[in-house]
Specification:
By secondary structure, the chain is mostly helical. The protein has ten helices and no strands. It folds into two domains: 86 residues, Orthogonal Bundle (Rna Polymerase Sigma Factor, Chain: A), CATH 1.10.1740.10; 118 residues, Winged helix-like DNA-binding domain superfamily/Winged helix DNA-binding domain (Arc Repressor Mutant, subunit A).
Length: 215
C-alpha cells in the first residue's frame, strides 16, 4: 500500500484509535475551509466536520476505505457530502450548490466573479491605513494569500467550492469532476474564469513583475 497513511491506518484497524488524531490534525484545516464554504457558519461547520471525521473513522475500522484509494480524496468527498446533507437539514430547502452545474450562459460574465468581492473591499477600505497601499511597498506571499482567501469567500458557490477543492484541498480536475458529478470541461472552465478575474484583482494592487514569483 503506497498510501502515506498506510501505517497509521493499520494501527487504527488494530485497535490503536489514538493514531487517528494524526490524520485529523493534518486534514482538519483544509477540510474546514471546504465545509464553511458550504454552511457559512463556524459553529455549523465545526459540527459537520466532526461528523465527517466520525464517518472517516468508522470507514477505516470497518474496512470500507480501500487501500488503493487516496485517503485525502476519500475524506474530502465525505466532508463535502456531509456538509451538503447538513445544509439541507438545517435550511429545509434545496441546497443552492446543486446549481453548480447550471449553464454558464445563466451568468453575467465578470459580474458574478467580481461584484461581491469589490463590495466587500470597499467596506474593508474604511479600516485600512493609506500608507499600507503605497506604490513602493513590495508584495508578500501573505498579502497574496489574503487577497485569494477574500476573493474565494465572495464569489458564488459555483466557483468558490471548486477553487477550494483545487487550491486548498489539492484535488485534481478529475477528482473534482467525479465528486461534483460535473463534466471535467466545466470544472476547468470555472477554474480558468475565476483565475482570470483573480489576476485582474491582484494587478489592480501590484505590478505584474512582482507577481511572477507566485505564478
Amino acid at each position: 500500500m503506497s498510501e502515506p497513511y498506510s501505517e497509521i491506518i493499520n494501527k487504527i484497524r488494530n485497535g490503536d484509535s489514538a493514531e487517528f488524531r494524526i490524520i485529523a490534525d493534518e486534514m482538519k484545516d483544509k477540510a474546514f475551509s471546504l465545509t464553511i464554504k458550504i454552511l457559512k457558519s463556524k459553529e455549523e461547520a465545526e459540527d459537520s466536520l466532526q461528523e465527517a471525521f466520525m464517518k472517516l473513522y468508522r470507514a477505516i475500522i470497518e474496512n470500507q476505505f480501500e487501500a488503493r484509494a487516496k485517503l485525502s480524496t476519500y475524506f474530502y468527498s465525505i466532508v463535502y457530502n456531509t456538509a451538503v446533507d447538513n445544509y439541507k437539514k438545517l435550511k429545509s430547502k434545496r441546497f443552492s450548490i446543486v446549481s453548480i452545474d447550471v449553464d454558464d450562459s445563466n451568468f453575467e460574465e465578470g459580474d458574478d466573479l467580481l461584484k461581491k468581492y469589490y463590495e466587500n473591499e470597499i467596506k474593508q477600505s474604511v479600516y485600512e491605513e493609506r500608507h499600507e497601499m503605497s506604490s513602493d511597498k513590495k508584495i508578500s506571499g501573505r498579502e497574496v494569500e489574503k487577497i485569494i482567501k477574500s476573493y474565494i469567500g465572495h464569489i458564488p458557490e459555483q466557483y468558490s467550492v471548486i477553487l477550494t477543492m483545487f487550491y486548498i484541498n489539492d484535488l485534481s480536475h478529475e477528482e473534482i469532476s467525479d465528486l461534483l458529478k460535473l463534466p471535467i470541461g466545466t470544472v476547468k472552465n470555472r477554474i480558468f474564469r475565476a483565475k482570470a478575474k483573480l489576476k485582474d484583482i491582484i494587478l489592480k494592487k501590484y505590478p505584474e513583475e512582482e507577481l511572477l514569483q507566485y505564478v
